[in-house]
Amino acid sequence: MVVDKALLLNLCALSTVKGMKYSMKKRVLRIETKIMILVIILMSLSVTIMGMLASSWIDKNLEKKIEDNIENIASLIARDDEIITALSTKDKDGVIQSIVQNYLNAVDNVTFIVVADMDSVRYSHPVPERIGDKFVGGDEKRVVKTGESYISESLGTLGRSLRAFVPVIHRGEQVGFVSVGTLTSSIDAVLSKTFNPLLLWISLTLGIGILGSYLISRSIKKSLLGLEPGEIVKSFTEKASMLDAIHEGIISVNELGEITYVNSSALKILGIDDIDEGSVVGSLVNDIFPTSRLINIIETGRPEYDKEHTVNGRVVLTNRVAIINKGKTLGAIATFRDKTEVMKLAEELTGINQIVEALRANSHEFLNKIHVILGLLQIKEYFEAERYLQGVVTRQKNIITSVVKMIKDPVIVGLLFGKISRASELGINIIIDKRSILLKEHGGIDSSVLIKCIGNLIENAFFALRNNEVEKFITVFIFEDEKEIYIEVDDRGIGIEQKNLNKIFEKGYSTKEGSSGVGLYLVKNIVAENNGKIEVDSEFGLGTIFRITIPKGGKL
Predict the structure, then answer these.
(1) In this predicted model, what pLDDT tens digit does every residue of 292-333 receive, in sequence order?
(2) DSSP 481-518
(3) CA 88 to CA 211: how far, in whole Å?
(4) What's the CA gap between 335 and 347, in Å, rounded?
(5) Phi, psi (5° rounding) for residue 62?
(6) How many whole angstroms separate alpha carbon 308 and alpha carbon 298?
(7) In whole angstroms, how far apart are CA 24 and each of 15, 223, 229, 239, 523?
(8) Element (H, E) at 75
């Protein structure tokens, strides 16, 4: 007898109520509070770091601009012919102050412009009374002694300032220098104005982050039906224990047909009770339970009650119901129980022979390696056994890593692994060109098209290398871009005689004993159906290259 649906719902409701009582007894931080605190901390750290980096960049950038500005102005004044002439005559006409004042009125972000002679006596100054006095700061000695231009920061009569020094040259001889400066207090004022929008942006970002964290936490809380994580865990554990205690088999799946829950009774009825429930969760239900019809229930939404069903050779009575919330199908659940013992199924699961055939080469190669290791252990060559095993593991890992990195289509990856194993049996090395790129989806091109093309070309290359004693390798290059897929298979085998090049794509033509001669014929037809083209370059005794180009637009 199947489990009563009302009983399951009552048990679930009871566990939820108990969980809520449990929450009231133990006061903890609510999940939305935790999320808000976490988001606020992360936002604060991020914004603070960004603000510090931005302020540092602005500070350095502004200081660099000011340095360039005062240096350019100082250089301009130092090359002024009137200044040079006047300074060379000790400014006997008293024109330097008026010239400098005109400059000072014409530029921005400059506090003072001082022109002085080689004795550091000023001929211009923002405070006229200080003209004739010595230059103050001490940092002018370098320009007087060496005649070089530079930037320095020092304390002068107007206060601490950033100033540029440039020598004044008259007829190849230095007659003085020009100093252009800006008070550091003025720079700080400009920085303060620049940082105000930055502070406003930081405050606004923090405000938006706090508001966003509040909305996100409320949304998450709502999606959890108002329950706290502890309540959910306790409720889930209780329900799982209840369902495991039931004799009926229970399997639930999500909307993708992936198993979300299975109890031990279900595994026993399915004949897989030697594995735990956790290892089955996440698998496709059709892989574990091919005749469950749960996918059909998800698609139609129509329940099925008290249906006789054969499961693993047993006749069971099954109920199947869609899981629906607010009109949306979230999955399906099936409950079933043994009705009678019957004969075991007369044949294996559909498709198992194909799987065995696909893995035959890998299994054969694996057994060979096991025999080698066993032999080494029997003769007590433990070091050699370890080294051999490490080499096998490393080679296999390198092959898998390199192929999977380039080829994203799992079907093509499986094909290539099978061919690599088969090539190993034949003493042939398959090289996947490192430039190869193949996406998981190929527009209008189905993976089966690529399987037939790549598989037949590689098999053809195997035959071409049958008599080679050296250089037994095949190079495979697969490249996909937005418009087309390019396939190239290159072997250094026996090659094709020129007189036979036009025959190789004919149906029934083959140089292989016992072959039906349809491989290349099939490849040509598939390429033509998909509006592609196939090319072959071959020289008898040297090798053959097949090139296929297929546009991703699909068939004609």
Answers:
(1) 778 888 888 888 887 776 666 667 778 888 888 777 888 888
(2) -SSEEEEEEEE-SS---GGGTTTTTSTT--SSTT--S-
(3) 69
(4) 26
(5) -65, -45
(6) 19
(7) 15, 20, 14, 20, 70
(8) helix 31-78
What residues contact 226, with CB distance under 8 A and at least 6 apart?
none
What distance in Å separates the CA atoms of residue 422 and residue 138, rounded to the nearest whole number? 85
Tokens of 445: 């091109």
Question: Taking Cα atoms as reference points, which of 394, 459, 407, 451 lies closest to residue 433?
Answer: 407
Q: Residue 390 burial by CB count (10 A; 0-12/13-18/19+): exposed, middle or buried?
A: exposed
The helix or strand, by DSSP H or E, that contains position 174, with its residue range, turns out to be: strand 173-183
DSSP string of 43-72? Answer: HHHHHHHHHHHHHHHHHHHHHHHHHHHHHH
Gap between the Cα atoms of 533 and 519, Å rounded? 16
Token pair recorded at residue 174: 């230095």
Position 147: which residue type?
Answer: G
The structure tokens listed for 548 are 């296929």
Pairwise CA distance, residues 437 & 443, whole Å: 15
Look-up of token digits 């103050």: 136
Residues 6+ apart with CB under 8 A from 416: 403, 407, 430, 432, 454, 476
* 5 token code pair: 């649906």
Tokens 């050296």 belong to 470
SS3 319: strand
Go through the domains of the chain in sequence order and give each one's CATH number: 77-187 (3.30.450.20), 246-341 (3.30.450.20), 407-551 (3.30.565.10)
Q: Is the pTM of this model over 0.90?
A: no
Is residue 511 within 8 A of residue 520, CB to CB? The reply is no
In whole angstroms, what is the distance from residue 476 CA to residue 434 CA? 10
The dihedral built from the CA positions of residue 143, 149, 152 and 157, taken in this order, carries a sign that is positive
pLDDT in tens, 110-162: 888 889 888 888 888 888 888 888 888 888 888 888 888 888 877 766 667 78
State the DSSP code for 435. T
In tens, the pLDDT along 227-277 reads 666 666 676 676 666 666 566 778 888 888 888 888 777 777 777 766 776
Helix, strand and coil in the chain, % to nearest 5: 50, 20, 30
Residue-wise pLDDT for 177-205, tens only, equals 998 888 776 666 666 666 667 677 777 77
Strand order in the sheet with 150-156: 112-117, 173-183, 159-170, 150-156
The CA-to-CA distance between both ends of the chain, in Å, stands at 56
* Residues comprising the chain, all counted: 556
Instruction: Name the DSSP class of 344.
Output: P
Rg of the chain, C-alpha, whole Å? 42
Residue 478: how many other CB atoms lie within 10 Å: 24
